[in-house]
Design a protein that fits this description.
The chain has helices at about 1-10, 10-15, 20-40, 50-70, 75-90, 95-125, 130-145, 155-180, 200-205, 215, 240-245, 285, 305-310, 325-335, 345-360, 370-375, 380-395, 400-415; strands at about 220-225, 245, 255, 255-260, 265-270, 270, 295-300, 315-325. Strands 5-4-1-8 form a 4-stranded antiparallel sheet. The chain has a two-stranded antiparallel sheet with strand order 2-3. By secondary structure, it is α+β, with helices and mostly antiparallel strands.
Length: about 425
């Protein structure tokens, strides 16, 4: 979530204020350490009502947003309801709720760590060894949360909150240091993910510092097209079929397809130039994001031609306030290398990288308002999009992930006031 939030604020804004981000990261870290240490001191342990009050305040503000905004009302209401239930349990049943929080957090961290580690070993994304190390650390922290030692769950809530704050603070501090040493011409979107064009002129073309601000603020509406293997979107409890792959009508494993259209002439669609063997017996091998699975790729000329040769897209999601100039510059650089990889350089990752380039700094001006920043941080769409983005970085971008991600993005952009408006 933090990475997407910073991306929407933009590199030009954050580069000048990297020290503010670093300071906030240090404060966040100190707060996490305080909670973690304080959890083991019986005499000064923070009462659970403090955490319950914070949850109730967040829930109240979220319910206000349910009335104020027409979009994603069920998502907002669900978030507020969960926070209220947890807060009531913390107040009414402090002993049992502490144990329940420890078990829930521990189970989540163990399952997520196991998934991240398994994905790193199977897919072998760039930097997979570091991802595996993080997964092992997360799994270890999850086991600790499940264990009653050393406070017999009495300080579990405070300990878990402190641990989560420390982990997030490390990410913020690392990002601040990258901003500090980032060359002036480099865009934030180009360091947000791997696989970007590494040409010397890439950053200058996408967001040249000599460009007048008004030119960068010309915003257009793009459309993300998603084809699913069955033409429909499986329910959330069918996570494998929704976010990874499903068996199509021919009995082969299919991931679907993603593309982005910006009228009148830009169409971003990266497709394998040769058919990839997707038989169920061989699918685990082709999932690896290694060079032996690279194949020649091709770029579809337009949505009209692609849909005519295949079928209309299953879903179309409009994305407003896109910087068309940055989008076209990104695609001009990206298409110089046609290499296609099913998990590392595919149709979906190309769409997400294009959106990163086109949406970087969309809230640069609006972020001068603290109220706007707080409202953006509390947006459930931002939380959802951040979770999907994090999941994709540990596995791969797929059409199912892209569809839910761009739906959340569309909700963020529709509710907030972008720069230049």
């Amino acid at each position: 979530m933090v990475q997407l939030f910073l991306l929407l604020l933009g590199g030009r804004l954050l580069r000048r204020r990297w020290w503010v981000l670093g300071f906030l990261g240090l404060v966040w870290m100190a707060l996490g350490v305080f909670f973690s240490v304080n959890a083991f001191i019986d005499e000064v342990r923070i009462p659970l009502t403090f955490f319950a009050a914070l949850l109730l305040i967040d829930a109240g503000l979220t319910l206000i947003a349910v009335v104020a905004f027409k979009r994603a009302r069920m998502l907002r209401f669900g978030k507020a309801l969960v926070f209220i239930i947890v807060a009531v349990l913390l107040i009414a049943l402090p002993r049992h709720s502490s144990m329940a929080v420890g078990l829930i957090v521990g189970t989540f961290m163990c399952v997520d760590g196991f998934w991240r580690g398994g994905s790193a070993i199977v897919v072998r994304i760039p930097g997979w060894r570091m991802s595996l190390a993080k997964a092992i650390f997360q799994f270890t922290m999850g086991v600790w949360s499940l264990s009653p030692w050393p406070t017999n769950y009495a300080g579990e809530v405070e300990s878990d909150v402190g641990m989560l704050l420390i982990i997030s603070a490390l990410g913020v501090l690392g990002f601040a240091l990258r901003l500090r040493h980032m060359p002036p011409e480099t865009t934030l979107s180009s360091i947000a993910s791997t696989g970007w064009p590494a040409l010397p002129t890439a950053a200058d073309v996408i967001a040249g510092p000599e460009e007048a601000p008004e030119a960068l603020r010309a915003r257009e509406t793009a459309t993300v097209h998603v084809w699913t293997p069955t033409g429909a979107l499986p329910a959330l409890h069918h996570g494998m079929q929704r976010y990874i792959a499903a068996v199509d009508e021919q009995g082969n494993i299919s991931t679907g397809h993603s593309a982005l259209e910006l009228p009148p002439s830009l169409y971003i669609s990266h497709y394998p130039g040769v058919e990839i063997d997707r038989a169920p017996s061989d699918f685990a091998r082709v999932l690896r994001a290694t060079k032996e699975n690279d194949v020649p790729g091709r770029f579809q000329p337009s949505y009209q031609e692609e849909s005519a040769g295949w079928c209309p897209s299953s879903f179309q999601v409009p994305i407003p306030n896109v910087d068309g100039r940055a989008l076209r510059a990104f695609w001009a650089l990206y298409r110089q290398d046609p290499t296609y990889n099913l998990t590392n350089r595919n149709c979906s990752s190309a769409v997400v990288k294009a959106l990163d380039a086109g949406l970087e700094g969309v809230f640069e001006d609006a972020a001068r308002s603290p109220i706007f920043v707080l409202r953006l941080l509390m947006s459930p769409e931002l939380m959802l999009a951040g979770m999907l983005r994090q999941r994709a970085t540990t596995m791969a971008w797929t059409p199912g992930l892209v569809l839910d991600y761009v739906r959340a993005l569309s909700g963020i952009l529709a509710q907030q006031r972008p720069m230049g408006q």
